[in-house]
Amino acid sequence: MTPPIVARAGAATHTGLRRSLNEDALLAQAPLFLVADGMGGHQAGDIASTTVIDGFAQLRGRPVLTIDDVSFTLARVRAAVDVIGGPGASKAGTTLSGVTIAAVDGVGYWLALNIGDSRTYRLSGGALEQISVDHSVVQELIDSGELLAADAPKDRRRNIITRAIGAGSTGEADYWMIPARVGDRILVCSDGLSSEVDDEEIRTLLTVHEDPQTAAERLVDRALELGGRDNVTAVVVDAVHVTTRPGGDGTSGIDDEDIDSDTRPRAEAMGGMR
What is the pTM of this model? Predict the structure, then answer.
């Protein structure tokens, strides 16, 4: 049976130019396309991100996933991350962002999820949209009108997140169900990419490079050219076949400079995570 979305994907990751350890982990195999960004090497951030990705990797090969599948797995990996390091140790943590292939009445959907400040974008019809919403102090300040979005990249609080898997956080993930279209291009990335390369250049690179592997590699290379201050990871996913409702979009129904450059939980940076 043909899955509701047939996808082609590419992925790239790099330690960056100022880090000795890559705490990012990724999964780019249907039906899951995910990036996790671990926090604090001395706090086993690399183990946290790998634990989360390994947990979700057990769902590989299924044609679709439901929100229940994802939320159950998220609860299981959260419990595994919470015990990393043992009693009395600093808490490990990680972000998680990405999409899974889902369906509603047989119709193809992207099920997007996010916790933390890794990001998920969609390029469709030439327009780039950030699907995920950062769980960060800076995003809260933007939402409250206390900070201009244009000033966010240089704000000293830009790497402080308000939700995570582990790191003492109990914050929940956000979910979105998005109807898929042939030609959709999804980008999932750690903040080591989005903090170096602005959205317009991301859009350009995703548009210019047709092959998803080439696009992922070029995005990572560009982040390194612009400083590479953190680990950098990109997963690029193309929808090459989507099952839609008859009469829909398809035809016949088918269609480390320093600690401030690293992701940190609010509990560590500001004395209280929610």
Answer: 0.87
